[in-house]
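Minutes, project huddle
Topic: does the predicted pose make sense with 5'-O-[(L-methionyl)-sulphamoyl]adenosine bound?
PN asked that the exact inputs be recorded in the minutes so nobody has to dig through chat later. Recorded below.
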Amino acid sequence: MSASKPFYITSPIFYPSAALHVGHAYTMTVADAVARSQRLLGNEVHFLSGADENAGKVIKAAKASEKSVPEFLDMITEKFRHLFKALDISYDQFIRTTDKDTHWPGAILMWERLREAGDIYRAKYAGLYCPQCEAFYTEKELKDGKCPLHLIPLEQIEEENYFFRLSKYTEPLKAKIESGELQIIPETRKNEILALLERGLEDVSFSRPAHAVPHGIPVPGDKKQVMYVWCDALTSYLTAVGFGRDDALAAKWWPADAHIIGKDILRFHAAIWPAMLLSAGLPLPKRVVTHGFILSGGHKMGKSMGNALDPVELIDEFGADALRYYLLRKVPSFEDGVLNKELLQDAYNGDLANGLGNLVSRILKLVETYEVETEFETPKTLWTKNGNPVRLALEEFDTRVAIDHIWGKISTLDRQIQESKPWELLKSLDNHEKQKGFDTMVRLYKDLWWIAVMLEPFMPETSKKIVQAIGKNKLDKALFPRKDQ
Ligand code: MSP
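Predicted holo structure (tokens), as shared on screen:
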């Protein structure tokens, strides 16, 4: 068995302009499943999340509230943490980009490295800016003259800025992505980025006038300019683990093993970020894993679209594991998916209460009634077993296929119980038949343990409850109490 390895995984850092919706919860849940599966392998994991606070839209939201900017940011980031707790997210660190001790020294160091490489220059910028994406767009990219994602009119901006020489990295990036040194998952997103590189990257405006975003990180040597929020935000992946303040720590965790992101921020992660790292002479992250959108009413779920669902409300009604289950199995792993209350309710009743819940109580009842005893393999042994399809799918970041395997087992066991009726075999006077009944019970018991272990990355609370129930040989309460249809 291989020795424990450090595994560094990040979620994006979220804009604390409002509480998080189900779309954000999705990114976190995917990252959490991967982080937990790495811990099951026995690896030392660092799972980073955080808040992207130096953004114009964040400050605008804070100013529109009745609170001071720091109070507002504290309040919203507290809500983030509350959600992460409610959703059972096993993050290790929460970075805030307003943190002058943890984040700013590294952000400033990154800027200096880019400048020393000759990749920062001053020029006039004239173009269109989407305050929701915090990104510039060209005319060609617009949808009916509006932001293609938020469908809002863009701001016409004309200012003197610093630019980052992104164009210089077109070819080096292409080589790194084609060789797999930087993996873009899934293949369709890799092809999208390669097509972008084929067209050639343009330099990007990398600073804003300080008066436009007074809370931003000042550009070293120029108090009138602050760093473009994406330059500052992407660098948080490095500053969180020590860059600019603790070299030994940074050397331990960097490069990241996986950045988990949604498809709207792919370009930042697969073009701008690796180009910055190449410019700064730093290793590239190993993988950028890209999921699709949660849609609601035919659109990307989003605060500004007015179709956002509150994950905390759904958790209160259905439980964290039901929401996690839905997100990780019912949303295709790398494509868009729909979530609404009715669909969540159907999945709850069908797959959880009737499917998993029934099977667990049936097997527990059998082993309790017939006093079945057996030894179980450790979670690590089961997880790392050659050919474990759940682990293999999760190594490809395909949560849906991973969970499909668990539910495949659930259906098989249901059928086996139905067909073999081990309780009848146990009553048989024929010793051979009796033994067969007993063996079936033992196998069912071991399979229940397998299910409990395999569920851990996806539904940690349920997994724990089954493990405890096995320990006590009884399930105190129904795992998934029935809900009215
Ligand atoms: N602050 C930037 C990320 C900086 S990372 C250096 C940002 N923040 S965000 O709050 O707008 O989004 C964070 C994550 O939530 C992204 O991965 C984004 O794709 C995801 N989602 C936001 N809405 C979503 C859906 N409706 N569906 C799925 N994911 C969505 O971008």
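Observations noted during the meeting:
- The two ends are 48 Å apart (CA to CA).
- The chain has a mean pLDDT of 94.
No decisions taken; revisit at the next huddle.
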